[in-house]
Design goal:
Layout lengths: L1 E5 L3 H12 L3 E5 L3 H8 L10 H10 L3 E4 L11 E4 L14 H13 L4 E5 L7 H16 L5 E5 L9 H6 L4 E4 L3 H10 L1 H5 L4 E4 L1 H32 L3 H9 L20 H14 L5 H13 L2 H9 L8 E5 L14 H11 L3 E5 L4 H8 L4 E2 L3 H5 L4 E4 L11 H7 L4 E4 L6 H6 L3 E3 L8
Parallel strand pairs: 1-2, 1-4, 2-3, 4-5, 5-6, 7-8, 9-10, 9-12, 10-11, 12-13, 13-14
């Protein structure tokens, strides 16, 4: 089976590589010439465990191809996936210009039946806009070619995307014709044979499912952060509370870890887009508006703790930051809490030294030379007045605290992920402040 994937961003590249891994002939298309030339050599533009080797392996087996022109890749292809970006507009809505551009391009060049599948995260009603765009392109050509549209949202976690695709909890597919459904059943048959369920539904419900999933997870995070802040005020320990509620199967143990707020390419964008969609239909999603508000405030929690500890005098002080990406196992810094923390520290006149195992190049692109970048974690804390643990990379979880104490000017740790034990830190001679642990500066 031959498929084409328009867009070689995070979703498109993972989708293309994983489909080729199960034997599908895949061509990934992107207008970025340099990116495509690198991909042909097996050089990928993102950090994702296991992805680079998979790309290289399937290029070598002639199952994964890369091209810059969609129009030249459609012969003999029945399924085209649209996996282009949907960046947020200023009002929070998803920008569909690239999605519709792909639809028009397909409509301009197909010569036989095609199924246009939207893989990008898009608001309700996008499939109909895609259908209209394709039909208008066909009408302009004066040809009558059958086509279908479908929705197949992704549920990939950055840092575990390959496993998520190959061993999914579920595969959601929205279709409105038997022909489209049978094509998607054929494409995903290797997954159903391994026990991974494909859930078929109408297209609108599939579009909404993606947003509902991310909104629910974002809600759990903001709820726990709100609870952590209250716990700190009343003297409770959110770590104990998390264990107490996580044992309830109705709640579960996932996404109930307090921290410095969610970031990345999905949760912030999707929450904003769903709020915008609801308003367009005359309905206000009050819960999600609160989720977004709490999250924005949470990104400043560590900075506020430091400001209180140092009595509002951060000027000239040096702060070490461990972790820059929005979460471990990725170099993604979109909406990362570290950006807010660093900006606040710099605005207060502080000096920042930072280290991240994989996101240094991305940080340099975003922040520039406003901060000092260090080659490893211990170099970062040399002569530091305080340490901010922002991203819980494995190498930060069991540091040599004797060495840490010797290198730091002051022995202060602000732990944004509650990685360390408060009693142990106190015994070692550190002033330690986590999130919602009842210890306040």
């Amino acid at each position: 089976m031959k498929i084409v994937i328009a867009g070689t961003g995070y979703v498109g590249l993972v989708t293309g590589a994983c489909f080729s891994e199960i034997g599908v002939d895949v061509t990934c298309v992107d207008i970025d010439v340099k990116k495509i030339e690198n991909l042909k050599k097996g050089i990928i533009p993102i950090y994702e465990p296991g992805l680079e080797k998979m790309v290289q392996r399937n290029i070598a087996k002639d199952r994964l191809h890369f091209h810059t022109k969609l129009s030249e890749c459609l012969d003999g292809v029945q399924v085209v996936f649209g996996a282009v970006g949907t960046p947020p507009d200023e009002d929070g809505s998803a920008d569909l210009q690239y999605v519709l551009e792909v639809a028009r391009e397909v409509g301009n060049h197909i010569t036989d039946y095609a199924l246009m599948v939207t893989k990008s995260t898009v608001p309700v009603g996008t499939a109909e806009k895609v259908r209209v765009a394709m039909q208008q392109a066909l009408d302009k050509r004066g040809v009558n070619i059958e086509f279908d549209v479908a929705s197949n949202p992704e549920f990939l976690k950055e840092g575990a995307a390959v496993d998520d695709f190959l061993k999914p909890d579920r595969i959601v597919v929205g279709t409105d014709t038997d022909r489209a459904r049978k094509l998607m059943e054929k494409l995903y048959k290797p997954f159903t044979m391994n026990g991974h369920p494909v859930i078929f539904m109408d297209i609108v419900s599939a579009e909404m499912t993606k947003y509902a999933a991310n909104a629910m997870l974002a809600t759990k995070i903001s709820f726990m952060n709100d609870m952590a802040n209250l716990s700190e005020i009343v003297g409770a320990d959110i770590n104990m509370i998390r264990k107490g509620i996580g044992s309830d199967r109705r709640i579960g143990k996932y996404f109930i870890y307090p921290g410095t707020g969610y970031g990345g390419s999905c949760f912030p964008k999707d929450v904003k887009a769903l709020i915008k969609t609801s308003r367009e239909f005359g309905y206000n999603m009050s819960v999600l508006e609160a989720v977004e508000h709490v999250n924005e405030l949470q990104k400043s929690v560590l900075f506020n703790k430091a400001k209180t500890y140092f009595k509002n005098d951060l000027k000239g002080k040096t702060f070490a930051v461990w972790g820059l990406s929005f979460k471990p196992q990725t170099d993604d810094m979109r909406e990362a809490p570290s950006l807010v923390i660093i900006e606040n520290l710099l605005n207060a006149g502080a000096k920042v030294k930072a280290y991240d195992p994989v996101a240094m190049h991305e940080s340099k692109r975003i922040i520039g030379n406003k901060i000092e970048y260090c080659g490893e974690q211990y170099e970062t804390i040399k002569d530091a007045d305080a340490l901010f643990l922002v991203t819980e990379w494995p190498e930060f979880k069991l540091p040599d605290f004797k060495k840490v104490k010797e290198l730091m000017k002051r022995h202060v740790i602000f732990d944004g992920r509650n990685v360390y034990d408060a009693n142990e830190m106190s015994h070692l001679g550190f002033d330690y402040f986590g999130i919602g642990t009842g210890l306040r500066p």
